[in-house]
Structures are given as structure tokens and as C-alpha cells.
Known about the structure:
With 290 residues, this protein is an alpha+beta fold. It has one domain (3-288). It has eleven helices and eleven strands. The strands form two sheets. Strands 2-3-4-6-7-8-9-10 form an eight-stranded antiparallel β-barrel. The radius of gyration is 19 Å and the shape is globular. Mean pLDDT is 82; it is low at 15-19 and 117-126.
Amino acid sequence: MKPHMLLLAAAFILPVSGCDKISGWFAGKPDIAFAPYGDDYASKPDLAQVEYDHPIALQELVKITPKYLASLNQEELDQLYARLGSGPIPDGPFDGEIVFPRGSSGKLRAAEIIGGLKGLGVNFKGKMLETAGEALWKGKVFYRDQKVLRNRIQDLAVLRPVIGPGDIPKIDVDGRDAWLLFPAKLYCGQSLIDSRRESIIIDYAFTDEIRGYREKPDFLAGRRGLKVRDEIRMVRPGLYLGRAYMDHAFILNFVLTNKEVDKAGRAEFEIGQVRDECWPGTQKRVLATR
């Protein structure tokens, strides 16, 4: 894959990592239990059984932060995701952070899938992806009524040679401009890890059908490019846990946060009034009580 294609890929698959952009409502580490598991696939627990044996209280979900999520390994993230509901489809701008699970090589995995490279080439490309992602990708903007999403790009200097002339829509978030590229369709659909209930799907397959689509660079995410498909579930209002796939291959976890939504939705969430917009499934979600 050419260098500029790798840079474009990083723009929407590698969020900036690091410090928390959002805090839990209560101090303290959340008390969340996980089912036992081993290294081999056969030892992984059934997700329905995990939810039945280890329900999570709303009071514990409100303590979760991106930093806490980053401390979990991939099996723990999977088990947590399976115990979440879709929540409502978000609206407006959200900040993005990547969650590389503890002890994994998620950056290397992304490079392998994108480039099909081996040896030192993978390490080099993976490093390029990480650097470009931190410089370019700052989050997503949801247009709930239109069932469309666009990605926030902070700096167009690297992308200009590929994008070419022409105006690109932009948005002001917290006093900083961000350009909007890589549109996707929003809908409720089957989760690729937990089919018991639906997730909110961010689908780039038919991005060329969305108004404002630009062939370059937007095609990269679509069915003629990397075939990106994300899915998200709500931890609580203003905090969503996501999973990114390329051609049905899982590549990384990510977190979307909005501090204003988080604050505004706390009262309803605490008393269990925030409902899933997507199909909750026939297996009722189990929530613990204090």
C-alpha cells in the first residue's frame, strides 16, 4: 500500500490515545467481575452465561472511564461489551480514543490487515499509522436524524495532495476547527461478537451514496477500500465502547465520549430510564442492583 494510503487509513481507524477525556461520575474503580478464561479459544465463556453470572450495576457503569477500559485485556473488553445495550443512537460531536488492550499488539495487527506486510515492513508501517492517527483523527460527528456519521480530521496538510482542491465542510468543537471526511451510514444491526442483541452500526460500505461524498479520500473506508465496519454500545450516556472491523476482521477497540451528554444524561441513567434504541433481543439484559 502506498504511503499516502496508509496515512489516510490512519485518519479514521486510529484515534488518539492517552489521557482521559471524560471522568466517571463517582470516584473509585468500578466493581465489575469477569468470568474465568484461558488462552485457547475453547476456554472462552459463553457471553450469555457471563451476563447471567456477573450482572453489572448501573452504579458501577457510571464509574467507568477510558483509562479504566485501557487497563482491561481483550477478553475482559469482550465480556464487558457483551453486557452492554445499544443505548440511543448518539447525536453531535464525540471525542475519540483508541483502546489497545493490555498485553496485545493491536497496532501491529492493524498494519498487517491494511498492508498485508511482513517483518520489518509491518513495524515501520504500524509506526506510521500510529503517528498519523494521532495527528489527524480527533473523533466523530453523529447526524442522528440523517442516520449519517462523519469523521473529524484535525489537520489537512498531509491529506491535501490526495484530496485536491475544493471546500471541505468543517465543524468547531471546543474552539478548534475540524474537517469532516469519511462519511458512514448509521443503523441498528447485528453485532459481530454478540448476536443476542443489536449494536449501533457505523457502516462505510456504501459511503459513496451519502451526500457530500468525496471519491478521494472517502473511498478508502468503503467497499472498494478497506471495508470498514464499526459497532458501538453505550456504557452510559456520553460514553460508548466500540469495535472496529476491516472486511469482518476485528482490529481494535475505541471509545467515544461527550462530556455534555454525559452530564445531561446522568439523572435518567441512574434510575434506569435510558432505553436501548436498537433491538434488545429475546434474552433480557441483566442489571445488578445494590
